[in-house]
Amino acid sequence: MAHYLISGATGVLGSHIFRSIFNKGHQVTLMLRGRTEEERRARLKELVLFYNLPQEAVDQVRLLHFDLSRPHLDMNLEEAKETFSSADHFIHSAASVRLNQTPEQARTMAIHGTKKLLEFCERWGFPNHLKKVEYISTVGVGGKTFSELPEAFIHETRDFHNNYEMAKSESEDFIEQKILQGLPITVHRPSMIIGNTYTGAILHFHIFYTLIQFLSGQMTGGFLPTLGQRKLDVIPVDFVSHAITSAAIDQNTRGKVLHLCSGPEYSIPLLELSILSRTQLSSHHIKLPALKWIPQVLALALSKATTYLPKHPATRTLKSLPHFLNYLSTKQEFLNTDTKAWLKTHNLAVPTPEAYLPAVFDYWIRRTHE
């Protein structure tokens, strides 16, 4: 039985990784926010309930408070020393994915926290039991610059869609230096994570689900920007989780950059996704406005006008449109040839959209529209 240390376990990906590792009978320590044991246990109970884990899991799992936004991560250093000294694997999944962070906020969450955690690994982990670190990054580190993002560290200057991408890119620069110094780290770059392949279940509905609501015309009264040949790379959470836990026990992945994404072969055309979202919603007897296509430039100008709208749940959603349109204006593909070859050695394969989109849509619609 191995001891896994996981940060970000209350997030979409980290929680699924926790579930997978716990179900295999391993010892697990979760790093999460909660100054008191009672607060931490309450957050764990939410995961246990969502994933239908045995109630005794609440007592079996060790919980360690940390906060990426605070000096020294707001951790008890004696507890940190004890935990890192006994861990066999560390999966760093914690992040703030908010797209409207300031540069300072984004760097604090993505870079400061990562540096401190790797310091703990070097001081207490690697001299004892720690075998390898799995660092969860994002395909967004390519920013707007790469039409084809390579499966490698990037050294070119880039423009980014937002400060989250910028900070993750700088964090990867730090990780690469640590790898060159000999630390055993694997970098994982997921694309847009969505629900489980078979059930569609996901802990939190996030940007993808707002995007498909937008593409259905629900949010805009049917007005949509012309989509052209743009595609969206999405990937089910269970596939990403399985790939990361497989890499954790494979020393051949040391120093590698793995693209956990659909890649050029299975990325979904946005027009197809728009049609599918309308078909799925209509099948649940949800009325939709007729679509009216407008140029992207006009759509962006109209979306920016939402800044001046009063505060309201509906306008809060509309205010996220500039972020979507910013992404939609960039044609990108994330190469995954080398990653697919590695996946094959673990009997894993990138799933096709046909295999997971029906379940993903059904789960979302049943929980938000019925």
Give a structural overview:
Helix 4 (77-86) crosses helix 5 and helix 11 (296-304) runs antiparallel to helix 13 (321-328). Helix 5 links the parallel strand 4 (89-92) and strand 5 (132-136). 45% of the residues lie in helices and 15% in strands. The protein has 370 residues and is α/β, with parallel strands linked by helices. The protein has 15 helices and 15 strands. The chain starts with a strand and ends with a helix.
Output the keywords.
45% helix; 15% strand; 15 strands; 370 residues; alpha/beta; two-stranded parallel ribbon; single chain
Largest sheet: 7 strands, parallel
Secondary-structure-derived class:
alpha/beta
Average pLDDT reading = 91
Q: Give the uncertain stretches in residue-range form.
A: none
The rough form would be described as globular
- The portion of residues forming beta strands comes to 5-15%
Distance between the termini: 43 Å
DSSP strand count: 15
Tell me the series of helices and strands, N- to C-terminal: EHEHHEHEHEEHEEHEEEHEHEHEHHHEHH
What is the tally of helical segments? 15
Major sheet: arrangement of strands: 3-2-1-4-5-7-12
Q: What is the helix content?
A: 40-55%
Radius of gyration: 21 Å
Question: Which secondary structure elements does this structure contain, and how are they paired or packed?
Answer:
Elements: E1 3-7, H1 12-23, E2 27-32, H2 37-50, H3 57-60, E3 62-65, H4 77-86, E4 89-92, H5 103-125, E5 132-136, E6 148-149, H6 163-180, E7 185-190, E8 192-194, H7 207-215, E9 223-225, E10 231-232, E11 234-236, H8 237-248, E12 257-260, H9 263-266, E13 268-269, H10 270-283, E14 292-294, H11 296-304, H12 313-318, H13 321-328, E15 333-334, H14 337-345, H15 353-368
